[in-house]
């Protein structure tokens, strides 16, 4: 979505007063939300009514998804799940739709040792996950086909499905739902008037909930209490997002060890750019300026050159983008540019082993047969 249209949609989805045309646009969007709700129900009803069966893979599948569009921290949660599986001694792989890719057929992005596709062919998140995790990653519109391809090429392992909550075709053994602790139900309105993909009733499909972006345990606890009547005793974890380091933006290793305290020019193509600025500041960086582009923006060499020129004007030590942005950088970069990408991790308020414990209980009957 182009940045100007994205900004208009966000304004329309909000409640701030505005001109008469904005009110009319919101009215039309509310009517469209009714049609969207009907379409969402028709999409999910065959599974709810038992008229359509899910496809199963011969290994456990952990699904990670959300209810809302626009930055609930789903990708860092996928990373945390894969890392927790590693702590349990379970080999893992990731399957994803691959947002923005042009083809629907399955593609092996990485075999765990070599990355074989770029962001244009595979989507942003799959390439980022392959870079950060060093596990096999496959993409495909039909996730069971992507899963079969990965298993055939890389052997049996627990599969972690990115953005799998609304994709009912594939059976999953554990269905994790990521909700933003500050606004778990994203304002309560369906697309296009709001940000919800489904109504709050869809939470019943979750086996466990992870409240993301909780600044502390108390915020997570209060959010869990507000949702308790919908969750019916299901496990709830909460976590904070924190930047723990810097990497070379082209995925060629770690960034400098003395990155904290550095003055930087930040840039991103994210749904919530101000959250990125806040995270950098909380991590100890001095953000001299933030340049925001549209969500999933693919950067050009000319844009990066202009950003580097501006950084030098401000006497910034480096340009800094998010990990998702780094996979969308062009190969032709200014030779003298210092460009870092942030390394984002999750800190669980229930303790460092809480996610691994949840996974162990769900997968205790499975043993890998490599």
Summarize the entry for a quick read.
By secondary structure, the protein is an alpha/beta fold.
Question: How would you sum up this structure, described in words?
Answer:
This protein has 370 residues and is an alpha/beta fold. The protein has 3 domains: 46 residues, no CATH class; 196 residues, Rossmann fold (3-Layer(aba) Sandwich), CATH 3.40.50.300; 105 residues, no CATH class. Helices cover 36% and strands 21% of the residues. Strands 3-4-2-5-1-6-7-8-12-11-9-10 form a 12-stranded mixed beta sheet, with helices on both faces. Helix 3 packs parallel to helix 5 and helix 3 packs across helix 11. The longest helix is centred in the first third of the chain and has 29 residues. The protein is globular. The model has no long low-confidence stretch (mean pLDDT 92).
pLDDT averaged over residues: 92
The shape, in one word, is globular
CATH fold label of the largest domain: Rossmann fold
- Classified in CATH, the superfamily of the largest domain is P-loop containing nucleotide triphosphate hydrolases
Spatial strand order of the main sheet: 3-4-2-5-1-6-7-8-12-11-9-10
**Secondary-structure element pattern, one letter each:** HHEHEEHHEHEEEHEEHEHEHEH
**Which CATH architecture of the largest domain?**
3-Layer(aba) Sandwich
What profile does the largest beta sheet have?
Answer: 12 strands, mixed
Please estimate the helix content: 25-40%
Estimated share of beta-strand residues = 15-25%
User: First CA to last CA: what distance?
Assistant: 43 Å
Rg calc = 21 Å
Spans where pLDDT lies below 50 across 5 or more residues? none
Question: What structural class do helix, strand and pairing data support?
Answer: alpha/beta
Number-wise, the strands total 12
Number of helices: 11
- Structurally, the number of domains stands at 3
Give the C-level CATH assignment of the largest domain: Alpha Beta
């Amino acid at each position: 979505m182009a940045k100007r249209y994205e900004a208009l949609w966000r304004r329309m989805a909000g409640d701030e007063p505005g001109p008469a045309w904005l009110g009319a646009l919101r009215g039309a969007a509310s009517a469209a939300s009714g049609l969207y709700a009907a379409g969402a129900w028709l999409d999910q009803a065959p599974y709810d009514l038992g008229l359509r069966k899910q496809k199963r893979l011969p290994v456990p599948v952990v699904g990670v998804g959300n209810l809302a569009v626009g930055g609930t921290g789903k990708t860092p949660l996928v990373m945390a799940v894969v890392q927790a599986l590693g702590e349990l001694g379970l080999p893992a792989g990731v399957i994803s739709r691959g947002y923005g890719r042009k083809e629907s057929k399955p593609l092996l992005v990485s075999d765990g040792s070599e990355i074989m596709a770029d962001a244009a062919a595979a989507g942003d998140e799959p390439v980022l996950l392959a870079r950060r995790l060093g596990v096999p990653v496959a993409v495909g519109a039909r996730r069971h086909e992507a899963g079969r391809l990965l298993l055939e090429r890389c052997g049996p392992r627990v599969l972690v499905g990115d953005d799998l909550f609304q994709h009912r075709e594939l059976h999953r053994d554990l269905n994790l739902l990521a909700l933003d602790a500050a606004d778990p139900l994203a304002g309560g309105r369906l697309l296009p008037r709001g940000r919800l993909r489904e109504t709050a009733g869809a939470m019943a499909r979750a086996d466990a909930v992870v409240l993301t972006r909780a600044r502390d345990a108390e915020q997570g606890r209060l959010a869990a209490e507000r949702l308790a009547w919908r969750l019916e005793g299901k496990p709830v974890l909460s976590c904070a997002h924190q930047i723990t380091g810097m990497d070379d933006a082209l995925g060629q290793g770690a960034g400098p060890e003395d990155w904290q305290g550095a003055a930087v020019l930040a840039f991103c193509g994210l749904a919530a750019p101000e959250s990125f600025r806040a995270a950098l500041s909380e991590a100890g960086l001095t953000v001299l300026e933030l340049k925001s582009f549209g969500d999933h923006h693919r950067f050009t060499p000319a844009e990066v050159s202009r950003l580097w020129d501006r950084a030098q004007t401000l006497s910034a030590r480096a340009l800094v983008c998010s990990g998702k942005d780094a996979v969308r950088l062009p190969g032709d970069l200014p030779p003298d540019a210092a460009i870092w990408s942030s390394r984002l991790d999750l800190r669980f308020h229930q303790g460092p082993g809480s996610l691994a414990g949840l996974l162990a209980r769900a997968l205790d009957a499975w043993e890998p047969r490599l």
